């Protein structure tokens, strides 16, 4: 029963992590447009900046994920799972005012390199450590499905909620500064 409790916590963590990350990411494009091109319906600079951020994040994750994986072999999977959870919170603290707008993008790129790829890989490694080989494939499928549900729920929520509602859980609204 203890194994089921530990994996249940991991499932909740995986869902909430993906929900939070993928609910804020689409809304940030709208915030970027308001910061760079106030009052305009289209802003190609905001689209390019968001695309550049995603490209750099992907390339950085390609390098950072194996490093975090090696560290998890040394220090433990549970301890290193706190790294992506904590890192994904840091960029929001930089976005308090429009003066820190570019600091948000730089911080977001650096933390996403460590957080987004590592969270899923570390979680799957943790599942592999805790589940017997005969049940591992099913456990991987369940965990991946729960994470995908968080991704879908976050993306849908970002499109149906107003940007102000998306950031209501934060102590500030990045659109107003």
From TrEMBL:
Membrane protein topology class: Multi-pass membrane protein
SUPFAM superfamilies in the cross-refs: MFS general substrate transporter
A Pfam family that the UniProt record links to this protein: MFS_1
Record carries keyword Zinc: no
Primary location group: membrane
Recorded superkingdom: Eukaryota
GO molecular function: transmembrane transporter activity
Entry keyword Hydrolase: no
Residues annotated as domain Major facilitator superfamily (MFS) profile: 6-177
Transmembrane segments: 7-25, 45-68, 109-128, 140-162
InterPro entries: MFS (IPR011701), MFS_dom (IPR020846), MFS_trans_sf (IPR036259), Sugar_transporter_CS (IPR005829)
Annotated keywords: Membrane, Transmembrane, Transmembrane helix, Transport
One cellular component term from this protein's GO annotations in UniProt: membrane
Subcellular location field: Membrane
PANTHER family: GH21943P-RELATED (PTHR23504:SF1), MAJOR FACILITATOR SUPERFAMILY DOMAIN-CONTAINING PROTEIN 10 (PTHR23504)
The name this protein goes by in its record: Major facilitator superfamily (MFS) profile domain-containing protein
Organism: Oryza barthii
Highest classification ranks of the organism: Eukaryota, Viridiplantae, Streptophyta, Embryophyta, Tracheophyta
């Amino acid at each position: 029963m203890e194994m089921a409790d530990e994996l249940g916590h991991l499932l909740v963590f995986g869902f909430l992590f993906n929900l939070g990350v993928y609910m804020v990411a689409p809304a940030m494009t709208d915030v970027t447009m308001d910061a760079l091109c106030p009052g305009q319906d289209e802003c190609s600079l905001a689209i390019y900046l968001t695309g550049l951020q995603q490209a750099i994040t992907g390339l950085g994750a390609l390098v950072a994920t194996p490093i975090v994986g090696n560290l998890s072999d040394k220090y433990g999977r549970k301890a290193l799972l706190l790294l992506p959870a904590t890192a994904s919170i840091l960029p929001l603290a930089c976005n308090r005012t429009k003066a820190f707008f570019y600091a948000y993008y730089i911080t977001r790129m650096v933390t996403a390199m460590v957080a987004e790829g590592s969270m899923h890989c570390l979680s799957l490694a943790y599942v592999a450590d805790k589940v017997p080989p005969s049940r591992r494939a099913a456990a991987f499928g369940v965990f991946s499905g729960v994470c995908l549900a968080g991704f879908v729920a976050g993306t849908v929520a970002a499109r149906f909620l107003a940007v102000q509602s998306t950031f209501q859980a934060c102590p500030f609204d990045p659109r107003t500064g």
